[in-house]
Design brief:
This protein has about 675 residues and is α+β, with helices and mostly antiparallel strands. It is built from twelve helices and 34 strands.
């Protein structure tokens, strides 16, 4: 995405002016506004909220070596621009309040004033689509929108921007917005309801900065320095560095890397290269519907619920004159990721929910006669495939003419056991550092009270590395926004079919990692959400309850309020004979079970995967005693609510759920919990 230029708004109020005077005033005003806009970074605007009780850093751009005077709340500080014109200054710390003005004046007399600035608590709300989900998609949205009017909750939503290198500015079209019925429909629901609930106990202005992107993995939210501290990312980061300097060479290296992955799949032979005209075969290929579209809707039983990878191919016949030209391939839209080749030459990759692709085909790639177009399409959620009317799938030649891709399309299903390919380093939501560069780096060192993090769904397919990544992300945020920056983590809600027997689950793995990472750090907390999920919707609408739970965690972890932050938590699991006794802490009142005398969802397990058995449970005060049909000596672990979409019935008297967990039997402390 290209950042929009600053918009200059001219307001000329003159009772009686000659045309000459009007032109002079217009020219002067335009120049002044253009100069003014360069003094402060675009992050600083009217209606912004700054962090209370904190020396807030502000920054911007002026002439090289120019001095600046900054006036704020009756106090003044100065700054000096460096040789490139960059400057920054620290505003004096003040308690919650306002509104204030901030005026920056350069040595040559140019100035810029910000109006209606409040001091309160500022929160960064980041993650993927459940943090993005808007108020107008939450429960009781009509009433929520109609009743929204709060000058002291303001939100800045950062546009979705991906970049291979760090950016200095958010788009000038991103604005700090007050809460009104007109603005709140597009607010992040989780972030907004959190602030609204917290403000009932912490009566200060709440500033919300939302930097979140649906479908994003954790890796693109991290700086390259943070990722290099986690094993396995150096090669891809080096490729990303090359891409920033030489995209063509980086693309060639990526093509080799992807093909290396393909040939490493079990059963793939040297001649199994669907992109290669020299290795064409009809084995395993089927005719696709002419309009293509989501393969789940083709009426093919094996594709009805298939998420994964398909190969597509077709041919286009060219004359000698046509083939001699360069071209742009427009195969239509693809959901969600594609690798595309022409005559075995990789021409590009794209990501998006059906967004139209357009790939440059260099001269020399095309030839007279039949030319092979091959697309590998990967979909990890639903409605995968190549989209768009057949008439829009064309090869656009350099002379301005177009050749339709009218030959039949074929497809081939890639076995699910092949797994997922490597992620393109510069891809937006599954690359490396791309969202950090485009959406976090432009926030500079803005004063923050804490971070709310709701992400993990896109990493459930490979949870093994998530703990190291989440810990590194937390350290990364703290390196930028403050050494003890609190972090509140939303434990993933439920999604998918409920289990009928104990299962291994990537969703459960991520939840337990989130629990462990929150528990190991005194400035972190966990908001349990598994009981407010939707089996049939990855985006549960009850963000109001999530906001209440996030606020409760913040009250405990950040404001020091003496209350259990997020429901019952297991502290020990000890085996006596054939029984395992779990002791819970953070219980308000008593443990309770919903819809039965005793809770369900507990499992006792051996050391190996797939060794778990459902256990019967009995509650005694703050303890749960478990029994299972397995030899006592084989029991080494206990799990609770361990599935993509488990049924969890253990709560306390405050209505707070015990969250999913895995604990080693006889383990004495939560922070030593084993995770296989």
């Amino acid at each position: 995405m290209v950042i929009s230029p600053l918009r200059i708004e001219l307001t000329l109020r003159c009772a009686a002016c000659t045309l000459f005077a009007l032109l002079c005033i217009s020219t002067f005003t335009a120049q002044a506004e253009d100069r003014d806009s360069a003094l402060l970074n675009t992050l600083f605007q009217d209606h912004a909220i700054l962090q209370r009780d904190h020396a807030n850093r502000i920054w911007g751009h002026a002439k090289p070596d120019e001095t600046l005077d900054i006036a704020f709340a009756g106090k003044r500080v100065s700054a000096r621009a460096d040789a490139k014109g960059r400057w920054d200054a620290l505003l004096p710390a003040l308690p919650a309040g306002g509104p204030y003005a901030v005026t920056v004046t350069a040595a040559d007399g140019a100035s810029q004033t910000l109006h209606d600035i409040l001091l309160g608590d500022v929160w960064l709300c980041s993650g993927q689509s459940n943090m993005v989900l808007q108020v107008n998609r939450s429960l009781d949205a009509r009433a929520e929108v109609q009743d929204a009017s709060n000058d002291r909750i303001r939100m800045l939503t950062v546009d979705n921007i991906s970049s291979a290198t760090p950016l200095d500015n958010i788009p000038a079209t991103d604005h700090w917005l007050k809460t009104t019925p007109q603005t709140v429909p597009e607010f992040s629901a989780a972030c907004y309801f959190f602030a609204r609930e917290l403000q009932k106990k912490v009566s200060v202005p709440m500033g919300l900065i939302v930097a979140a992107w649906g479908g994003s993995r954790i890796e693109p939210w991290m700086s390259p320095q943070a990722l290099r501290k986690v094993d396995g990312y150096d090669e891809s980061l080096n490729l990303l560095d090359l891409y920033a300097k030489d995209p063509t060479r980086a693309g060639e290296q990526w093509d080799r890397l992807w093909k290396k992955w393909w040939h490493s799949r079990p059963g793939v032979t040297a001649s199994n290269e669907p992109w290669n005209p020299a290795h064409l075969s009809d084995t395993g290929w089927h005719t696709a519907p002419i309009d293509l579209g989501a393969w789940q809707h083709w009426g093919v039983p094996e594709l009805a619920n298939f998420t994964g990878m398909l190969w597509y191919r077709t041919t286009v016949t060219l004359s000698k004159q046509q083939a001699a030209q360069g071209a742009v391939l427009s195969p239509g839209g693809v959901n969600e990721m594609d690798q595309t080749w022409v005559n075995g030459h990789w021409v590009g990759t794209g990501y998006g929910s059906g967004s139209t692709r357009a790939y440059r085909v260099p001269p020399g790639v095309l030839h007279e006669g039949e030319n092979l177009i091959a697309i590998n399409a990967l979909c990890t959620y639903r409605d995968g495939g190549v989209y768009g009317p057949a008439s829009e799938r064309v090869l656009r030649l350099a002379d301005g003419s177009s050749v339709p891709l009218s030959s039949p399309w074929q497809y081939q299903v890639v076995p699910s056991q092949y797994g997922s390919p490597p992620n393109l380093p510069w891809q937006s939501t599954s690359g490396l550092t791309t969202l950090y560069n485009g959406m976090i780096a432009p926030l500079g060192h803005y004063g923050m009270r804490g971070v709310l993090w709701y992400q993990g769904e896109s990493n459930t397919g490979d949870a093994a590395n998530y703990r190291a990544l989440l810990e590194a992300l937390r350290s990364d945020f703290r390196a930028r926004f403050g050494a003890d920056l609190p972090m509140v983590i939303v434990q993933l809600s439920s999604y998918g079919p409920s289990p009928t027997h104990p299962v291994e689950s990537g969703w459960a793995d991520i939840r337990d990692i989130q629990r462990i990472v929150a528990a190991e750090d005194p400035h972190s907390g966990l908001a349990v959400a598994v009981d407010i999920g939707e089996r049939y919707d990855i985006h549960p609408a009850n963000k109001q309850e999530l906001g209440r739970r996030l606020a409760r965690v913040a009250r405990h972890v950040i404001y020091g309020e003496a209350l259990p932050p997020s429901g019952p938590t297991p502290t020990t699991a000890q085996r006596e004979g054939d029984a395992v006794t779990l002791i819970f802490g953070d219980v308000t009142g008593n443990l309770v079970a919903y819809s039965a005398d005793n809770p369900i969802g507990f499992e006792l397990c051996g050391a190996q995967p797939n060794s778990c058995r459902y256990a019967t449970a009995e509650m005694h005060g703050n303890q749960v005693v478990l029994h299972a049909a397995m030899q006592a000596g084989a029991i080494s672990r206990v799990r609770y609510c361990w599935a993509d979409s488990p049924t969890c019935t253990l709560f306390d008297s405050a209505g707070l759920p015990a969250g999913p967990f895995e604990l080693s039997v006889a383990q004495a402390h939560l922070d030593q919990a084993a995770h296989p």
